Amino acid sequence: MQLNERSLRNLEGVRPELVAVVKRAAEISPVPFVVTEGLRSQARQRELVKAGKSWTLDSRHLTGHAVDLVDANDFGYDIPDMTAIASAMRESASELKVPLVWGGDWKQRDTPHFELDRKAYPA
To answer: With a threshold of 0.70, does the pTM exceed it?
Structure first.
């Protein structure tokens, strides 16, 4: 699957290594996905925290180190679909040798969220 125009626009300002991972994952993912968020402004991040959609003002989105992806079919992020997308993202990251972290693995799950590993890519 090719990424749509919205997804490509939302990848503007995102680190090139992560963009490459997302584009490759789009080719191999069994679930088509859309990039809903990439680089964010501090104002946008404050809005998301205020709305309860994010819990930090120190998001990796602020530096282009993170993206949010959702199922293109229903714009949802249910566990089976997000697990399939995460599998494609992990495979792509492995192929490209880019250390990646999935928010679905966190204690406080954030299944749409993927970010470059802080150890390899500090802000």
So the answer is: yes
Looking up tokens 């963009």 gives: 19
Q: What backbone torsions phi and psi does residue 74 show, to the nearest 5 degrees? A: -135, 5
Q: What is the pLDDT of residues 88-117, one digit of tens each?
A: 999 999 999 999 999 999 998 999 999 999
State the CB neighbour count (10 A cutoff) for residue 53: 10
- Tell me the HSE value of 34 on the side-chain side, using a 13 A CA sphere: 13
3-state secondary structure the chain: CCCCHHHHHHCCCCCHHHHHHHHHHHHHCCCCEEEEECCCCHHHHHHHHHCCCCCCCCCHHHHCCEEEEEECCCCCCCHHHHHHHHHHHHHHHHHHCCCEEEHHHCCCCCCCEEEECCCCCCC
